[in-house]
Design goal:
Blueprint lengths: L1 H15 L25 H12 L6 E6 L3 H5 L4 E8 L9 E2 L13 E7 L8 H11 E12 L6 H4 L10 H12 L4 E6 L2 H9 L8 H5 L8 E7 L2
Parallel strand pairs: 1-2, 1-4, 2-3, 4-5
Antiparallel strand pairs: 5-7, 6-7
Helix pairs in contact: 4-6
Length: about 230
């Protein structure tokens, strides 16, 4: 019922506060919460596309941060679900640990780690990547998404910090240092329209699929990294 009501509210917002594509001469965005009040945020579309393209890897012992939403959505043979949270106040957490502190993490346990939009909010992101390598089983994969072009996430900034934006090159270099270049696959999604839409808070529902999926390497809205531990 909640999802049904939310869908109606989003639809109403899009109709009442419709997008005037001819006039963006304003210092205020249409939405300050990534368009979530109007529909699905642009970056979430790219995250879901990436995970769907690699859902065959979502099997065995699977780890996700905070909840198991994307694991369930892409389940291809999960035998055990683990949920990581850095404090014990999340009742869903099966592992309480910090990616930057290997001593708090299980070693060689995870076959697939789904890590979406997380490293942007970790100041010591290199240690966090080392933590990802540490917890993966030999032959295991991590499916990681990073923010390339985006507004500040005020919710995160006010709680623990919003520190970084990445490029495909920086992502490739840092993950290669830890996993080895041959075990790192980096991809990006986005174009100038998608970037403007995300910054303005325009939702997925207000764009066409061909507009969302048009690729321009100079506008990496969302960067994805598939890494394998050997």
């Amino acid at each position: 019922m909640r999802q049904y009501i939310l869908a109606i509210l989003r639809s109403v917002n899009r109709k009442i506060f419709s997008t005037n594509w001819k006039d963006f001469r304003t210092v205020k965005p249409i939405s300050r919460i990534f368009g979530e009040d109007r529909g699905k945020p642009i970056d979430r579309y790219y995250i879901e596309t990436f995970l769907s393209e690699n859902k065959d890897l979502v099997k065995g012992t699977v780890l996700e941060i905070g909840d198991d939403y994307y694991s369930k959505l892409n389940d291809s043979g999960i035998t055990k679900q683990e949920i990581l949270h850095f404090t014990a106040d999340n009742s869903n957490a099966t592992i309480v640990g910090d990616l930057t502190k290997k001593e708090t993490l299980p070693h060689n346990l995870i076959d697939c780690f789904i890590c979406t939009q997380t490293l942007n909010f970790i100041y010591d992101f290199k240690s966090a990547i080392e933590g990802i390598h540490y917890l993966l089983n030999k032959g295991g994969y991590a499916l990681i998404t990073l923010s390339g072009i985006s507004q500040i996430s005020r919710y995160d900034m006010d709680r623990w910090g919003d520190f970084w934006r990445f490029t495909p090159k920086s992502a490739k270099n840092i993950f290669s240092e830890i996993f080895g270049e041959e075990n790192v696959e980096v991809k990006s999604y986005g174009n100038v329209l998608a970037a403007i839409s995300l910054l303005q808070g325009i939702s997925v529902e207000e764009l066409k699929e061909e507009e969302l999926m048009f690729y321009d390497k100079d506008y990496p809205v969302t960067i994805t990294v598939k890494v394998k531990k050997v």
